[in-house]
């Protein structure tokens, strides 16, 4: 039992950071404070499967990165991501590293957003 638990903990801690792709939403409203990696939300992966209204009207997601006060408690209660990520429609919250896979310290943003580059250029 302990060996199995140790293996799971090792796998979770060794999970590499996923690099966000163009259009992904990086969400870090509470992750850093909770000692978790930021969430990488693959917007276009979801967009090719559902119409905009499913998430932005029916589930209440605002059209602005960082505009939603998403928390794990709300997700567990079936709000926001939890409407689908409940273990029946899609994986459940026990699979932390499938969502919490971003680079620690990354601010909430739409990755490679043209608007973001115009409003707040990144110095390199």
Topology:
Blueprint: H1 2-13, E1 25-27, E2 39-41, H2 43-47, H3 52-58, H4 72-76, H5 96-99, E3 109-110, H6 114-119
Antiparallel strand pairs: 1-2, 1-3
Describe the structure.
This protein is mostly helical and 124 residues long. The chain has one domain: Alpha-Beta Complex (Cytochrome C3). 31% of the residues lie in helices and 6% in strands. The protein has six helices and three strands. It has helices at residues 2-13, 43-47, 52-58, 72-76, 96-99, 114-119, and strands at 25-27, 39-41, 109-110. It has a three-stranded antiparallel beta sheet, with no helix packed on it. The radius of gyration is 16 Å and the shape is globular.
Whole-angstrom Rg: 16 Å
Identify the quaternary structure here. Answer: single chain
Range of strand content: 5-15%
Strand count, sense and barrel status of the largest sheet are: 3 strands, antiparallel
- The total number of structural domains is 1
Q: Can you count the beta strands?
A: 3
Fraction of residues in helix: 25-40%
How would the global form be characterised? globular
């Amino acid at each position: 039992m302990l060996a199995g638990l140790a293996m799971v903990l090792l796998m979770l801690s060794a999970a590499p950071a996923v690099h966000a792709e163009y259009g992904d939403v990086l969400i870090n409203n509470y992750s850093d404070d909770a000692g978790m990696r930021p969430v990488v939300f693959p917007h276009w992966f979801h967009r090719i499967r559902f119409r905009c209204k499913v998430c932005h009207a029916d589930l209440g997601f605002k059209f602005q990165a960082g505009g939603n006060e998403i928390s794990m408690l709300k997700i567990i209660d079936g709000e926001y991501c939890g409407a689908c990520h409940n273990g029946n429609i899609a994986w459940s919250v026990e699979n932390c590293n499938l969502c919490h896979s971003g680079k620690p310290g990354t601010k909430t943003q739409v990755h490679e957003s043209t608007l973001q580059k115009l409003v707040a250029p990144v110095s390199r």
